[in-house]
Amino acid sequence: MPIKTLGGDVKLADGTNVPLSKGVRVGDFIMLSGQLGFGPGGRIVEGGIEAQTRQCIENAKALLEDAGSSLSQVAKATVWLTDTADFVAFNKVYGSYFPSKPPARSAVCSALMVPGAVVEIEFLAYQPG
């Protein structure tokens, strides 16, 4: 079964290439790499957990749509937060994107690789066809 890569190259703010795909499609499954709150300028958005959560999900939404899918097809999400105190605010924003039948989800507290990032979300979607 062929693997189709999604999105373009991944680069750090300094232009360094990162050896990963933004996502891949294998058969009916779409797996997105962990989404960070990178805005259009390639930098982490300002505004804390709410703004970064929104940006993570919007980034994922765009990748899923490019693959012919949508957030409604997300079956599983894995979330990393840098501070457990952000969990309630994270859930408020996250829940606005998944108001009914939310996907399965795991959430952990951990340091992240990108300075200034406070949340990372990885998505797995099922899209037949």
Question: pLDDT below 50 for ≥5 consecutive residues: which ranges?
Answer: none
CATH topology: 60s Ribosomal Protein L30, Chain: A
- Spell out the helices and strands N to C: EEEEEHEHEE
Count of DSSP-assigned helices: 2
Query: Strand fraction band?
Result: 25-35%
Average pLDDT, rounded to a whole number, is 95
CATH class: Alpha Beta
Gyration radius, to the nearest Å?
14 Å
For the record, what is the CATH homologous superfamily label?
A: RutC-like
Shape: globular
Question: Largest sheet at a glance?
Answer: 6 strands, mixed
**How would you write the strand order of the largest sheet?**
1-4-5-8-6-7
Question: Distance N terminus to C terminus?
Answer: 13 Å
Number of strands: 8
CATH architecture: 2-Layer Sandwich
How many domains? The number is: 1
> Into which percent range does the helicity of residues fall?
10-25%
The class by helix and strand makeup works out as alpha+beta
